[in-house]
Design a protein that fits this description.
The protein is an all-alpha fold. It is about 70% helix and about 0% strand. Strands 1-4 form a two-stranded parallel sheet. It has a two-stranded antiparallel ribbon with strand order 2-3. β2 and β3 form a beta hairpin. α3 crosses α7 and α15 packs antiparallel against α17. The longest helix is centred in the first third of the chain and has 32 residues. The protein is globular.
C-alpha cells in the first residue's frame, strides 16, 4: 500500500541583501541639510575658480599673483606664509575638521554603523581611489618627476558635485545622494591619510609630540563637555577652539600637512548624544554645535577662498592650453578622474554585489550608479591641494596639474549631466512618492513601510 505523497515544499532560499535601499528618515533629513549647504558652497567655489582663472589670464594678472603670494604671519613660529598657503594649510583645516566629524558621525551614530549599509560605499570609495591612482601612475611611469602626483585624482569634491546636481535640476533620490556624500567623505579621509604618509617632508618630532598635549586635553574636554560646561554645549567651543588652534600650529611646525590636524580634531568630538543627569540630553550636542558653526564657514568661505588662490593658472593662450592638456600630468589626471573614478566605483560595487549575492534596490538600475560614479570624478579642492604638495606651488607641473583637474572636473560634470538627465523623470516620480504622508504624522509613508512601521 503506497502512502500518499506529501507536497514537496519549494527549495527555500534566504532573501538576498538589497543594496541602496532607503536610509532612515532622520538620516535623510540630516544629509539633506548638509547637501543644501554644500550646494551653496559649490556655487561659490565654482565662481571663485572662474574669477581666479579670468584674473590670472588677464592683463592685470600680476595683481592676482601678487595677492596670492603676499606673505603675512609670525616668522618665529614658522607661520610667515603666503595668502595662498594660509588658505591651503589653515582654511582647509576647517574643511577637513568637518570631514573627520562627518565620517565619525556616519559610522558611530548614523546608518553606516550597520555593516550592511557601510560596506558598499566604503569599498566603492576605495576602488575609486586605487584605480585612478594606478591609471595616473601608468601614464607617468617613465617620468619620476611627474609620478609623484599619483594621488592627485583620488578625491571627490562633494560641493562641486552637488552644485552640478542643482544646476541640472536633478531629483537624485536620497539613497544615491547619501552614497555620493559617503564616497566623497571616505575619499577625502583616504586622501588626507595619503598626504600624511607620503607628502610629509622634514619631519620634526618635537612639535609633533608637543601637539599631543593640547590634542589630549581637547579630546578630554570634548568627551566630558557636559561635566565642565553644563548640559548646553554652546560655550564649549570657546575653550576648545584655542586648543584646536594650538594643535594645528604644532602639527604645521612638525612638517606634517596641517590639514591632518583638522581630521584628528574632528575625530575627537563626541557624536553620541549623552544624557544629562535626571533626564534626556538637553539642547544640541557638541557635534551639532560644531556642525552648525563651522559648516557655513567651510562651505561659504574656506573652500571658495582656497579655490580662488589655487585655481588661478596662466595658461598662455590657446597654444599654452593645448601644451598643458597634452602633458603627461594633465593626461594622467583626466584619464584617472573621467575613466578611472567611475570604473573603480562602479566595478567595485558590481563585484561586491556578485560576491555577496546582493541585488540593487528595485528603485534603481546600474545606469544610476554609473551616473553617480561619473559625478564622483569631479575632483577639485583636495586634488588642487595634492597637486601643490606634489610639485610645488606655481611650478610648471603644478600648472599642468591644475589645467588637468579643471578639464577633468568639467568633463565629468558634463558626462554626469547627460547620464543623470536621462533618468530625471524616474527620479522625479520617486521623489514624489517619498513625499506622500497619508497619515499626516510628519514621516513619509515609504520610510514607515521600509521600517515595518
Amino acid at each position: 500500500m503506497s502512502h500518499p505523497s506529501s507536497p514537496v515544499p519549494p527549495p527555500s532560499s534566504a532573501p538576498s541583501r538589497t543594496v541602496f535601499s532607503r536610509n532612515s528618515y532622520a538620516e535623510v533629513l540630516r544629509i539633506g541639510q548638509i547637501l543644501r549647504k554644500e550646494t551653496v558652497g559649490g556655487a561659490l567655489l565654482v565662481a571663485a575658480a572662474v574669477i581666479a582663472l579670468i584674473w590670472a589670464n588677464s592683463p592685470a594678472s600680476g595683481g592676482y599673483f601678487a595677492l596670492r603670494d603676499f606673505t603675512i604671519g609670525y616668522e618665529p613660529w614658522h607661520l610667515d606664509l603666503s595668502l595662498g598657503a594660509w588658505a591651503a594649510d589653515g582654511l582647509l583645516a576647517i574643511f577637513f575638521f568637518l570631514v573627520g566629524l562627518e565620517l565619525k558621525r556616519e559610522f558611530i551614530a548614523g546608518d553606516l554603523r550597520q555593516p550592511s549599509k557601510s560596506v558598499v560605499p566604503v569599498a566603492a570609495a576605495v576602488g575609486g581611489v586605487v584605480l585612478p591612482a594606478l591609471i595616473y601612475a601608468l601614464v607617468n611611469f617613465g617620468s619620476p618627476g611627474t609620478l609623484r602626483g599619483w594621488a592627485i585624482p583620488t578625491a571627490t569634491d562633494i560641493a562641486f558635485a552637488v552644485a552640478v546636481l542643482a544646476i541640472i535640476g536633478s531629483h537624485l533620490p536620497s539613497a544615491l545622494r547619501i552614497f555620493l556624500l559617503t564616497l566623497a567623505v571616505v575619499d577625502d579621509l583616504l586622501a588626507i591619510t595619503i598626504i600624511a604618509v607620503f607628502y610629509t617632508s622634514d619631519l620634526q618630532p618635537v612639535p609633533l609630540l608637543l601637539a599631543l598635549i593640547p590634542l589630549g586635553l581637547y579630546t578630554f574636554l570634548a568627551q566630558k563637555y557636559r561635566r565642565f560646561f553644563g548640559v548646553k554645549a554652546g560655550a564649549a567651543w570657546l575653550i576648545l577652539l584655542p586648543l584646536g588652534v594650538m594643535v594645528w600650529a604644532l602639527v604645521h611646525a612638525s612638517g606634517i600637512h596641517a590639514t591632518v590636524a583638522g581630521v584628528l580634531l574632528g575625530f575627537a568630538v563626541p557624536v553620541l548624544r549623552s544624557q544629562a543627569s535626571g533626564g534626556p540630553a538637553a539642547g544640541p550636542g557638541l557635534a551639532e554645535v560644531f556642525e552648525h558653526r563651522f559648516r557655513p564657514l567651510s562651505a561659504g568661505i574656506a573652500v571658495p577662498v582656497f579655490a580662488f588662490f589655487s585655481a588661478g593658472v596662466a595658461v598662455g593662450g590657446w597654444e599654452g592650453l593645448g601644451s598643458a592638456l597634452g602633458s603627461p600630468v594633465a593626461v594622467g589626471i583626466i584619464l584617472a578622474l573621467v575613466l578611472g573614478k567611475p570604473l573603480g566605483i562602479l566595478g567595485t560595487t558590481w563585484l561586491l554585489t556578485k560576491a555577496t549575492k546582493a541585488r540593487l534596490d528595485e528603485s534603481f538600475k546600474w545606469i544610476d550608479i554609473l551616473g553617480v560614479a561619473i559625478l564622483a570624478g569631479i575632483g577639485f579642492t583636495v586634488s588642487l591641494l595634492v597637486a601643490e604638495l606634489s610639485f610645488g606651488h606655481g611650478s610648471v607641473h603644478d600648472d599642468h596639474a591644475k589645467v588637468g583637474i579643471l578639464a577633468a572636473s568639467l568633463l565629468a560634470a558634463l558626462l554626469a549631466t547627460v547620464v543623470l538627465r536621462t533618468r530625471n523623470r524616474h527620479y522625479r516620480e520617486a521623489e514624489e512618492d517619498e513625499k506622500i504622508d497619508s497619515d499626516h504624522d510628519g514621516i513619509p509613508d515609504v520610510y514607515q513601510q521600509d521600517s515595518g512601521g
